[in-house]
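mind reviewing these tokens:
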Amino acid sequence: LSYVPVYIRAHHMLVTGDGTAALKWGSTNAYTEDASGKPVYDWKIVDRIIDTYIHAKAKPFVEIGFMPEALSVKPEPYTRHWSQPNDGQGWSYPPKDYDKWGELARQWVLHAVERYGKAEVESWYWEVWNEPDISYWKGTPEEYDKLYDYAARGVKKALPTARIGGPATTSPRNANAAAFLKQFLEHCAANHTPLDFITYHAKGMPRVTGDHVQMGLNVEMMDVDRGMKLINEFAQYAKLPIVLSE
């Protein structure tokens, strides 16, 4: 039998904190700064997560996000737990220094290559952020495009053959999500931004009927169809992989 790898994607891989487990929320403390503002990288928790994937013979679908506390333009309050989702999301804001953000992406890839090898990391996917068209991103679409550009530049500088993509928008049946995805593709096309795969989400609309869950696959397939039709407007991206990362 041929081996088909399973890819695992996790949120909050760059969020500041001690790694305490929380429903949906989490942290790794990968990036902090010293008293002079110099970046301090600590990959211990990130390594434990990715080591677990590799041990299970899975592959990382690496989500480059969210914003470390020391980089956020509005770091406080910096909620880390699902029990307080609206109590401030300092991790959802743009960086105060895009150069440091891009360098963080570069350092992460460099570390991954050193730890796991070039060939292994070439098999991963690196996705910038998650659902930037809703509350996960407090910046503008244009600021997300800039966030993506700097991250993509950092990834490619560390490993030119690494695969970088996005924007991981929500269901494209929603007009706002479709508009965000389209403007991102227009930006990449106009600026020759590295784009090795395109991601969006197809969530469906499940319903609970009695003691059963009825899946909403018709709505999910509508998402898939509308996203693909939108992407097909860009001839230069016709052959790129499309990943439904949720």
In short: Residues 109 and 159 are 7 Å apart (CA to CA).
